[in-house]
Amino acid sequence: MEAFNFRIIKTNGAEIIDNTLSTPYNSLTPIQMMDYINVENSLYFTERRKCRIKRETILDRIRSFLGGKRGEIWWNISLTKNH
Q: Residue 27's pLDDT is what?
C-alpha cells in the first residue's frame, strides 16, 4: 500500500507536519490528496535547498562575504591583472 511519509495534523487553526507518521493514499479525499501532494513537493524542495547549502564551498562563502556573484570576482581580478 502506498503512503505519504508524513501526516498533516490540524489543531486550533494550525497545521502540523508529523514525519513520524505515515498517511495511506486510500485514506484521503481528493482534496486532501491535493494538499498532501503540495506539502510533499514543498518538503522535497526544502530538502534540496538544505543539501545545496551544505555543498557550499569555502570559495562561495568568501565570494558571498565580499558581495560578489558567481564569476564576478574572478572577472574583476582578471581585468585588474591585464591593465
A: 95
In whole angstroms, give the CA distance from residue 76 to residue 58: 19
Amino acid at 32: Q
Q: DSSP E strands: which ranges in the chain?
A: 3-4, 7-11, 14-18, 23-24
3-class SS at 75? helix
- Split at pLDDT 50, 70, 90, the class of 2 is very high
What's the chain's average pLDDT?
Answer: 80
Distance CA 51, CA 19 (A): 19
Side chain identity at 18, as an amino acid letter?
D
Please report, as a single letter, which amino acid is at residue 59: L
What pLDDT does 56 receive? 67
Coil, helix or strand at residue 20: coil
